[in-house]
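Q: Could you write out the predicted structure for this multi-component system? I'm mainly interested in how the pieces pack against one another.
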Amino acid sequence: MLVFILRRLYQTLIVVLGVVVLISFLLAIIPGDVARMRAPKGSSEEVLENIRKKFYLDKPFLTRLGIYIKNILKLDLGESFTYKRSVWSIIRESLPWSVKLALVAEVIIVIFGILAGVISAVSRYSFWDVLVTISTSVLVAMPIYWIGRLMQLFFAQWLGWFPNSGAPPPGSGFWSGLSYYVMPATALAAISTAYVARLARSSMLEVMRQDYIQTARAKGLSNRRVTYKHALRNGLIPVVTYLGIDFGVLIGAAVLTEMIFNWPGVGHKLYFAVIQRDHTMVLGLVFVLVIIVVFINLLVDISYAFLDPRIRLGESPEVT
Amino acid sequence: MSDHRDPEDLVPGKEPDLGMEIEEFELALEKQRVHGRTALWADVWYRLRHNKMAMVGLVIIVVLVLVAIFAPWLAPQDPLYSPLYDQNATPQEKAESVKQPPSRRHWLGTDDLGRDILSRLIYGSRVSVEVGIVAVLISLVIGLFFGALAGYFGGWGDSVIMRSADIFFAFPTVLGAIAIMTVLGPGLINVFIAIGVLGWATIARIFRGSILSVKENEYVEAARAMGAGNARIIWKHIMPNSIQPIIVYATMGVGGAILAEAWLAFLGLGQQLPTPSWGNMLAQYLPFYTTDPWMMFIPGTAIVVSVLAFILLGDGLRDALDPRLKGSV
Amino acid sequence: MTNGKDTLLEVRNLRTWFHTQEGVVRAVDGVSFAIARGEALAVVGESGCGKTVTALSVMNLVPSPPGRIEEGEIVFEGRNLLEMNDREMRQVRGNNIGMIFQDPMTSLNPVFTIGSQIREAIQVHLGLNRREAKRRAVELLEMVEIPQAERRYKMYPHEFSGGMRQRAMIAMALSCEPKLLIADEPSTALDVTIQAQIMELIARLRQEIGLAVMLITHDLGVVAGVAETVLVMYAGKVVEYADIDRVYYNSRHPYAWSLMRSVPRLDEKKDRLLTIGGSPPSLINLPPGCSFSPRCPFAEEICFQEEPPLVEAESGHLSACHFAGDFEKHGQGVKS
Amino acid sequence: MRRGKTALILAVFLALAVGLAMIYAGCGEKKEEEGKGGKKEGGVFKYCLVSDPVSLDPAQLQESQGIEVGKQIFDGLMDNDPKTMELVPAMAESYEVNDDATVFTFKLKKGVKFHNGRECTAEDFVYSWNRVCNPDTASEVSYHMSPIKGYEEVTGGTAKTLEGVKAIDDYTLEVTLSYPYADFVYHTAHPVFSPIPKEVVEEYGSENFSEHPVGTGPFVFKEWVHEQQITVDKNPDYYGDKPYLDGVVFKVYQDEETAYQDFKAGALDDAQIPQGQFKAAENEYGERAIFKAMLGIYYYGFNMNTAPWKDSKELRQAFNWAVDRQTLCDVVMEGQRIPATGIVPPGIPGYQANAMEYKYDPDKAKELLEKAGFPGGQGLPQLTLGYNTGVGHDTIAQFIQGNLKDLGVNFNIEGYEWGTYLDLIQGEQVTFFRLGWLADYPIMDNFLYPLFYSGNAGVDNMSQYKNEEVDKLLLEARSTIDEKERIELYREAERKILEDAPIMPLMFYKTSRVYSDKVGGYMRTPDDLTPLEMVYFKE
């Protein structure tokens, strides 16, 4: 088990460094002179010069990358151009919101996704199965910001059940705070819930065809026990794998959800940082995001070993 | 219940006699496969035809492609024309032209600049079809190449490619597209590249997986034992049999690309105005969702229906191509 | 074949069809037989002749859709299983009738330990608590000759060999002391030496606990050492039903007769084995008359028009052939 | 089972259609009745802020959100009257100017306290202004102080303190300019001139002052949760008329649309009305939807250093004649913009209604195109109009594109993000562009000098417009004491610039703000701000 975790950590390190190199390369070739953008209007050339020096922009790409990686290891992510504050302080403010939203979304995905998938697999060709297939397909096909706007229209302005947008203001209680999470988390979860439902359905159908299910039935076990004990445990394995990968996308892809619901998370900040060439901000945020994503993948792989004893022998499951 | 259309047992019991020359052996295999393959494809089409949902998807796709091709002849008006900037339109006409609800003259009404929405919708289909096909082609080319490399040769090449695929997985695609679009600048060609480049990781991973599973089969060993070169083995033996999951993913990928253009359009990075695309139309009509809600439903439904069509076809293909699901339609 | 001893299981005119896209597959089309307490019946036939579907029908495990039991009765200890509701049937499955399957590699749930899977049936049917059920399970493992049963109890299926897994399956099937064990091709997926061990195990268990066995196989050699009576099936119907010696040495039906001659025998010197040409007919559009007629060397005109009824060629020896008595003298015969 | 599925698809689409019908019916909330006049003390006003301010440090107050909050926390020597924009004394009791407009002496009111209780003296002004010009502060708005003597030396780093700013005594501040500039006193109403307490800056460090701003304004800063909200409380011992409200919560939004919907759902007491919904807002809220003329101009600019703009005045004039400004304002902008008649908008002393003769006259435009050597648009190189995305400029761009297309002149339009966009214009990579200019202070100079004085080329003068005659006129006007003469000089300069046509003036801005019926005393100034000390909740 330990070897398994060490090997995963080793792979994690490569992925993180790879992403940092990829992003800094991408930022280096984005056109536009960053220094002039940051300098006060009409400042002289030498003012531009010392700004470039301050953010190492004058150095060739490789040395700049070297400096940056050295700083990362010292956990000093430098200062953001646009917000004129340290990247860490910005991340400390907004990352918790993204993670909380992603977690609430994750709960929705797990509960509704798996439930819908399993029930529609069990009662194949029934009304419920067709309803789930149709609704998951439509959900997957809708642009997320459209889902968000329609929800705001129906539930916030017209029915008034939930606040139209924004994160719970400081000092709001648990339940009143939760009401702020409902719509953004549902919008964020919509597409992944649909995928999980489809995945759960096809994997459950696959498992129901296996011989050991016939053995379980032959043992005289009730349908419920056969489905929810024997079949479900095996059917969930591919779903857990997907959830691992999907969690990272959830945080990053929240860009549009955060804009629509005015959620103070990292998604839209990363978007603005990219288009405003805020190098340190982009690198800092992506570095932290990738760490979280890869950490989640590690958790998923470990949980994998509990779900599927065949994995405990140390080789990590290849996702086909 | 043996279904005698099953390709494996078409040549019952007759094991390839290893003594033959490689060409002869392949001829025998080819005969079986060609007979098998045409039978396989016939069988796939047979099963697909019986899947009603997949057929609905296929019909919608055919209609979409036809509309895209014949857009100039189908569109009732010039999508860019508006009385607003027509010098000989009366001020009265100009004032009334904006955001008209559906009428006889404008079946789907006019947008916030007085242009005919139906014509813009029809021309918009061109962008969606182009984005879908070109982006998926780019993903396929990159994905298949690296997938084959990783799957077939394995070793350190495999881990390098797979780790870089992990990087692309870890990095949210939305932001990847934005970063690439910011580097390349706005414009449809760059949208193709952005969406296409980001799709390779999944295809590489799927193709590598199916190559690994096919690689173990005896007939590949047999072919290698006969002295066939790697390229020949990949092309003649592995490719045809591991292509099924790719076809399914590519079909769904086209839908995904259409959706991606809509995402980028919301951020102002999709097809540049005034040329219409469903993405930039939805993004433009969205703010009127309380005053003129019907406007956003037009491009929105078009996107949903076309993406849905590719998903349904993809599902149908997955069931039709899956050998284990024989007979249970 | 009940000869005076009380009947354990009697199947009368069982019809199980599958409604598929291409048409109705008559997998089991009017099958009748009976098994007495402690008796071992072998059901023999080529793949696709309906022997597995018969077994599944007894256990009421036929997947529907597309399968459905159209007609017939399955009387077990005097009660018709088909009239039972799902809850009653569950009391029978695994408790009174145990079943083992062909491929041990996939018949055990990979994510649960062997012990928990065996214990489950005991707890459900015999209502023992966890500790007692565990003790009982370990006993069973020892009964099926699995070494270090205590340690193996906690291990997972992928840590067992093929033979070991089949033994575990048998232990599971016998966990509630069933009266009948249905074994659907128990040894086909195993290599020859293990096959023999499994068959000996089944034979030994029959003696020790007076177990009735319904052995389904396409391998005639396996049948010899275990079964007392043989039911030969072809294209969903019974073509011959008699004691094992009669079918082996004095078969009254061309199909079983050819089968016997296509098996290499140690006690006879033969330079060339007999092969049956063609392949089993499609169960959707069966040929008219006797389904075996296209492949039967002794077929006459009538064989192609009328379906032969199952008649008693001799006492206690049924055969579905127009010339059940002396088919060798008909048709072109066989140049031996 | 097959029929079941198709029936179900129909059911789903039916549900969609029903949903659509519900939206139709559900539109527009019920009419509220008008409250009567009683002014209630207290209550917390929820203010709509369409993006988080970059900073609350006076030295960094540049974008409108920063100023909207900064104005409530900081006061300066002078202020603008909310209705007429005339200059009114704030912390200064009075001021005198010497005869050649180079020395301004301000008399301060006594007993004006900072929020931390300490009295504000002339010395605080000296400290604050020097801090703004200090290069370490890297202020982006220090150029407002450029006329002050010693500004170049301090910003260049060669001097420590501004020569032209001296505290004669605790309540007298003397400001000396490096050149005569009568309108300088208008500059002192800009928040960058607000005094801040030295001890607070030292306590938190200069770059962290933004997180703990302390000033002399009507409201005291309480808390800033970034990207969420800024809270301020009533300043009990404010020297001016005390606010009615207990406090204000500035709620931060990234998207105008979402903020407007929050207002409709009652989560905000005021909001910005998004473009495209002006008419609907007017019908629904009547006079509570404030569409007042603003001191701002929306224009398209040509880069005068690059072809084809640099060598053909007729071409630039043709573009001006080709645009139908009336339809743009009445239809596209739903009547909430004023067609531009020149560069300086109405409401600024010296505004001239007939500054330019350009009207919508396609024939005249065609004629000029031929004279320019591009008959019917042939021979023109590939042109591209740039704009910044996200706030409706694309709709206007497509309208103008249509106008020009009518004459055979085709050009592409390309959207960029704001930061990139500015950089591409300054880098002269985008040569035909859209820009807006809001007045810092209500004087003609604030429109003509920054945008068209050759010295500002590449800073605010994005067209890189260089014309000696205009430069001479502007400098002469700046140093003319007599207001009438000064205005005449500015007017002549404006006419000359417009004749040269380095830009295409399109529209003058209007405010588009709506406030809740529970509130009274709410108004919007011509520079798009709301004096919150005058706002109160009705009974």
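A: Regarding packing and overall arrangement: Chain A touches chain B through 48 residues (CB under 8 Å).
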